[in-house]
C-alpha cells in the first residue's frame, strides 16, 4: 500500500490535509471502480474531468484525492494532495514506484496481439509477475498497473499502446523497460498518424528506449518490424514462421477444438508441442512469449509445462461450443486489415461440417484510406472458403462490395448494428456451422455474441 507521504513524494505534491502515514489500498481514476479507503486521482481527460466527480468519489468511499484545482470544501476528504497536473502526477508516482524496485520490465507493443502476448508472456515467466490488467496500456493505464507493484515481483509485463507519436516514449520514461517486444506493424490509428511509416516510428520508440544491455524480441516475419529493429544495437531475438527466425513454429497442424500442434524450434533445439490455441496469429503471440521467457533464462521444461495451461482471453481467439452443434470463434475485441486477414485464414483452415460464417464489423481509425482498406479486405473474403458474410456498420458494407467483385457466391447480409446482426444470426445458424466474429472495439460485436448464446441456451432448455 502507498501512504499519503509516498504519494506526496512520488508526485511532488503538497499535502493539504491528512496524516502522512495514512495508507490506501488502491489508487484509482474511475469512481465506478472505487472501493472504501481508496485514493482518487482527479484526472482531466479528453472527454471527462475527474474533478466533476469528487462527490461521487466520496460517496463510493474514497478517503483521499489528488487535485490540481482549488476545492470549495476541504472537509470532503480526509486526505488531499495538491499537484500541478493530475495526469502528470499519476505518471510521476508510477515512475517513483518503479525506481524503488529491481524487477525486470518487459514492454510489449505492436498493431495486434499485444494483450495476448502480454498474458502468455506473464504465464510463461511463472510466479512473482506483475502484468497490465486487461488492456490498460495508455498514459493512464500503464501507470496504474505499475503502482499496483507489491515489491516482491521479479518481472512486470506491460502492454504499451499509442495513437500518436511520443506516447510510447513517455511510457518508457515511466517504466524503464529492459525487454521490448514488437508483435507486428500494420495500418492503424491512421486518423492521427496518417501513414504506416509513422505507425512504425511510434512503435520504434520502445526499442529506442531499451538500454544497451537490453533485449529486443521482434517478429522476424514482419518487414516493418525488421526495419525499425535495426536501430537497436543490443541483443535481439526473432520469432515467427520463417526459417531465419531463432524461435519458430514448424509442421503446424490444427487439431480442431483441441487446439494446435507444432514443432517448436529454438535455435538447435526442437520440441513437439500441443497448445489450446487456435490460429497462426495466436501462435505467433505464443512464440513471442517463448522467446522472452527463454531469453530471460526460464528453463525450457518449465516453459513447455506452462504452455499446456494457456488459454485465450475473452474476445481474443476463444472457441465457444454452443448448444445445437454450433461453434463460435470469438475474436471480437478489435479489428484492422491484418487482424481480419488472420481471422479469415483461421476460419478457412478450421475443420467444419457446416457453413463457415464470417461476422465482420467496421475497421475503425483507418483515416482517409478506410474505404480502400475495406474494399481490399472484401476482395480477400470473396476469394476465400467462406459460405456466408454478415456485415455490421456503414463501412463494413464495402466488404460485401469487394466480395461480390470477386464473384462471391455465398449469402451476404448487412446490418446497422450488432443487435440486428445477433437477432438475425440466432435464427440463421444451424448445426455444424462455424461462426467467426471480428470487428473494431467501437462496433461492440460481443452484443451479437451475447444474443446468439442466450438464444442457444434457451433453445437447449426447451429440448
Key words describing this protein structure:
463 residues, alpha/beta, UDP-N-acetylmuramoyl-L-alanine:D-glutamate ligase, Protein-Tyrosine Phosphatase, Chain A, nine-stranded mixed beta sheet, 16 helices, 22% strand
- In total, the number of domains comes to 3
Instruction: Give me the CATH architecture of the largest domain, please.
Output: 3-Layer(aba) Sandwich
Indicate the low-confidence ranges by residue numbers.
none
**Main β-sheet, spatial strand arrangement:** 9-10-8-11-12-13-14-15-16
How would you characterize this protein structure?
- The protein has three domains: 2-86, Udp-n-acetylmuramoylalanyl-d-glutamate--2,6- Diaminopimelate Ligase, Chain: A, domain 1 (3-Layer(aba) Sandwich); 101-307, UDP-N-acetylmuramoyl-L-alanine:D-glutamate ligase (3-Layer(aba) Sandwich), CATH 3.40.1190; 318-461, Alpha-Beta Complex (Protein-Tyrosine Phosphatase, Chain A), CATH 3.90.190.
- It has 16 helices and 22 strands.
- It has helices spanning 4-11, 54-59, 86-99, 114-125, 141-147, 167-175, 190-193, 196-209, 223-229, 280-295, 300-307, 337-349, 370-383, 397-405, 418-428, 446-461, and strands at residues 2-3, 14-17, 23-24, 27-28, 39-41, 64-67, 79-82, 104-109, 129-131, 155-159, 179-182, 215-219, 235-240, 247-254, 260-266, 269-275, 318-322, 326-330, 356-361, 388-392, 411-415, 434-438.
Amino acid at each position: 500500500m502507498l501512504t499519503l507521504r509516498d504519494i506526496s513524494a512520488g508526485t511532488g505534491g503538497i499535502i493539504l490535509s491528512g496524516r502522512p502515514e495514512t495508507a490506501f489500498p488502491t489508487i484509482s481514476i474511475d469512481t465506478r471502480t472505487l472501493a472504501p479507503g481508496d485514493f482518487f486521482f482527479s484526472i482531466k481527460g479528453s472527454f471527462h474531468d475527474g474533478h466533476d466527480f469528487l462527490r461521487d468519489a466520496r460517496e463510493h468511499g474514497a478517503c483521499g484525492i489528488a487535485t490540481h484545482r482549488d476545492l470549495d470544501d476541504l472537509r470532503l476528504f480526509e486526505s488531499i494532495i495538491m499537484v500541478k497536473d493530475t495526469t502528470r502526477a499519476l505518471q510521476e508516482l508510477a515512475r517513483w514506484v518503479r525506481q524503488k524496485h529491481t524487477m525486470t520490465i518487459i514492454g510489449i507493443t505492436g498493431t495486434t496481439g499485444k494483450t495476448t502476448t502480454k498474458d502468455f508472456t506473464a504465464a510463461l515467466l511463472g510466479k512473482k509477475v506483475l502484468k497490465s490488467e486487461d488492456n490498460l496500456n495508455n498514459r493512464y493505464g500503464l501507470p496504474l498497473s505499475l503502482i499496483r507493484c507489491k515489491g516482491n515481483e521479479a518481472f512486470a509485463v506491460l502492454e504499451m499502446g499509442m495513437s500518436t507519436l511520443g506516447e510510447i516514449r513517455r511510457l518508457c520514461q515511466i517504466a524503464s523497460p529492459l525487454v521490448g517486444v514488437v508483435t507486428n506493424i500494420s495500418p492503424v490509428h491512421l486518423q492521427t498518424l496518417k501513414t504506416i511509416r509513422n505507425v512504425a516510428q511510434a512503435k520504434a520508440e520502445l526499442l529506442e528506449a531499451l538500454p544497451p544491455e537490453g533485449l529486443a524480441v521482434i517478429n522476424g516475419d514482419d518487414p516493418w518490424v525488421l526495419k525499425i529493429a535495426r536501430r537497436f544495437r543490443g541483443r535481439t531475438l526473432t520469432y515467427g514462421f520463417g526459417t531465419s527466425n531463432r524461435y519458430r513454429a514448424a509442421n503446424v497442424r490444427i487439431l480442431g477444438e483441441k487446439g494446435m500442434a507444432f514443432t517448436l524450434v529454438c535455435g538447435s533445439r526442437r520440441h513437439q508441442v500441443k497448445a489450446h490455441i487456435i490460429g497462426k496469429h495466436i501462435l505467433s503471440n505464443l512464440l513471442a512469449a517463448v522467446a522472452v521467457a527463454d531469453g530471460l533464462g526460464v528453463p525450457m521444461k518449465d516453459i513447455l509445462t506452462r504452455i499446456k495451461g494457456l488459454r485465450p482471453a475473452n474476445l481474443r481467439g476463444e472457441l465457444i461450443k454452443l448448444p445445437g452443434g454450433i461453434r463460435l470463434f470469438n475474436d471480437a475485441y478489435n479489428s484492422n486489415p491484418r487482424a481480419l486477414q488472420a481471422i479469415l485464414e483461421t476460419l478457412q483452415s478450421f475443420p467444419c461440417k457446416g457453413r463457415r460464417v464470417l461476422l465482420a464489423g467496421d475497421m475503425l481509425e483507418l483515416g482517409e484510406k478506410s474505404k480502400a482498406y475495406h474494399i481490399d479486405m472484401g476482395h480477400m473474403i470473396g476469394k476465400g472458403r467462406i459460405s456466408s458474410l454478415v456485415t455490421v456498420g456503414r463501412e463494413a458494407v464495402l466488404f460485401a462490395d469487394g466480395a461480390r467483385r470477386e464473384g462471391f457466391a455465398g449469402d451476404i447480409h448487412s446490418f446497422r448494428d450488432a443487435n440486428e446482426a445477433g437477432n438475425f444470426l440466432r435464427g440463421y445458424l444451424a448445426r455444424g456451422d462455424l461462426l467467426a466474429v471480428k470487428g473494431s472495439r467501437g462496433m461492440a460485436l460481443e452484443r451479437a455474441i451475447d444474443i446468439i448464446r442466450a438464444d442457444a441456451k434457451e433453445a437447449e432448455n426447451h429440448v
